[in-house]
Design a protein that fits this description.
The chain is α/β, with parallel strands linked by helices and 475 residues long. 44% of the residues lie in helices and 13% in strands. A seven-stranded mixed β-sheet has the order 1-7-6-5-4-2-3, with helices on both faces. The chain has a four-stranded antiparallel β-sheet with strand order 8-9-11-10. The chain starts with 5 loop residues before the first helix and ends with a helix. The chain binds pyridoxal-5'-phosphate (PLP). The site of pyridoxal-5'-phosphate has 13 residues, from α5.
């Protein structure tokens, strides 16, 4: 079990904290802080029991949503800094983790090939990171609308309402990517001030054609923000020209105005770690109205003054810093091999599904998310069977955890022309293979899902049989 390795390190962290605290002189802890040992023992017992009410996110059998526990090194980094509890709202709240935050922001900027003087900071997550980008866009183009694809994360529509900007939804093509003809039509109206492109949609992990969209946006003088909350880290492989993914859209992020990325998704961090990066550091002036413009063109970042959030955990910056020391943002060591394992797992599962009788592949995975459904004659039957398989798999003896995704039947027809489309929206299955262990267990996962797909089909057959017998008996 990977966290077992942490045992001696937790001791080392406590030794370090003890030594550091002792260097400031001994003091007495106020008795009001004391907790009765029996109370704690009993409460902790209940706490631990309640925490078992969770899905096994750490296990390869969990192939559902975008969830996995943090890397042990991130836990060690977080735990150690948390005992000091620095607040990265300002350098004075935590000088050490404040400096570490600047360093990791520079590393993330370099990952996207953003310029040296990029302005950026960590956030509570992708939602706040994207909000900051949209807010900056609205400040720069107060009268204009913000465009995003129909399959962009719902946060964009919601945040447009928060900042009172008009949101415009652009249709997507059969792969779930933004349709560029539709984008150009919207740009031609002159109403669009900013275009949000997604590098890895939260549903099937589709990557918008950022490389082609950028020049289009420039032609109409629109800002370009990339929501790379999920897919951003795959830039590492894209810049190494890894044949496992189509790299051009990721490499084009380098030309965009801002990018949001979530270290708490593919960056091995615990929740509470997003990041926003702005190519032009002068947008910092928007955050603090009494600052002279030139102040923000320097490389000196004033974290508290360039963030919408005030208090932020220095421990999050510390955890990311320590993680990147051990697992750098590189293609052939560190994070690269972890990401590549996920891509391999998805390619492999997709090819197994394509060759199977029981399952049909919905989209060829661009990243590490696989979408598929049990083979049936009608959209209605696919919908019902997907939901049943999802529930059956979770409750089975040797369970597998999948997730449900709402697909468009018309799009399913592209790869499955014989499908009888008797309803528009169809529930299908989706598996996020974001743990590298999935590479080692993908054959097993596939076999489990196939076996269970057969089992529910047999049940359906039996149920149909009974129905028929009952009808016959009634006649
Ligand atoms: C997860 C995600 C978000 C939201 O980020 P949070 O970290 O959950 O706040 C936004 N956009 C995309 C593409 C995402 O995958």
């Amino acid at each position: 079990m990977p966290y077992e390795e942490l045992r001696p390190w937790i001791g080392k962290a406590l030794d370090f904290i003890h030594e550091w605290e002792a260097s400031w002189g001994a003091f007495r802890v106020h008795p009001a802080q004391e907790v009765d040992l029996d109370t704690l023992t009993e409460a902790f017992g209940r706490y631990a029991r309640r925490l078992t009410d969770n899905y096994p996110f750490f296990h390869p059998r969990y192939a559902g949503q975008m969830l996995k526990p943090p890397h042990p090194v991130a836990v060690l980094g977080y735990f150690t800094a948390m005992l000091i509890n620095p607040n990265n709202h300002a350098l004075d709240g935590g000088p050490a983790t404040g400096k570490m935050e600047k360093e990791v922001v520079r590393q993330l900027a370099a990952m996207f090939h953003f310029p040296e003087h990029t302005l950026g900071h960590l956030t509570g997550g992708g939602t706040i990171a994207n909000l900051e980008a949209l807010w900056v866009s609205r400040e720069l183009h107060p009268q204009k609308a913000i465009a995003f694809s129909r399959e962009a994360h719902y946060t964009h529509e919601r945040m447009c309402r928060v900042i009172q900007a008009e949101g415009v939804k652009i249709p997507t093509d059969r792969y779930g990517r933004m349709d560029l003809d539709a984008l150009e039509e919207a740009l031609q109206t002159g109403r669009i001030g900013t275009v949000v492109l997604t590098a890895g949609t939260t549903g099937p992990g589709a990557v918008d054609p950022i490389d082609e969209a950028v020049s289009l946006c420039r032609k109409y003088e629109a800002r370009v923000h990339v929501d790379a909350a999920y897919g951003g880290f795959f830039s590492i492989l894209a810049w190494a020209e890894d044949p496992l993914l189509h790299g051009a859209p990721f490499r084009a992020i380098a030309e965009c105005d801002s990018v949001a990325v979530d270290p708490h998704k593919h960056g091995l961090q615990p929740y509470g770690c997003g990041c926003i990066l702005f190519r032009d550091p002068s947008v910092g002036q928007l955050y603090k109205h009494d600052s002279p413009y030139t102040y923000f063109t320097s490389t000196e970042l004033h974290l508290g003054e360039i963030s919408l959030e005030c208090s932020r955990p220095g421990a999050a910056a510390g955890a990311l810093w320590l993680t990147l020391q051990c697992l750098p943002l590189e293609a052939y060591t560190g994070l690269g091999p972890i990401l590549r394992a996920s891509l391999h797992a998805a390619r492999r599962w997709a090819s197994l599904i394509e060759r199977s009788e029981e399952l049909v592949l919905y989209l060829k995975p661009e990243l590490d998310i696989v979408t598929y459904y049990p083979r049936r004659a009608t959209a209605h039957a696919v919908d019902a069977a997907s939901q049943r398989l999802f529930e059956y798999a979770m409750k089975a003896e040797d369970p597998v955890f999948l997730s449900v995704y709402r697909a468009q039947a018309a799009r399913m027809k592209v790869t499955n022309p014989r499908l009888n489309v008797d309803q528009e929206e169809v529930r299908i299955l989706r598996s996020v293979l974001m743990k590298p262990e999935h590479e080692l267990y993908v054959e097993w996962l596939h076999q489990r899902v196939v076996d269970m797909a057969r089992a529910i089909q047999q049940e359906e057959g039996t149920a149909d049989g009974k129905e028929k017998t009952r009808k016959d008996a009634g006649n």
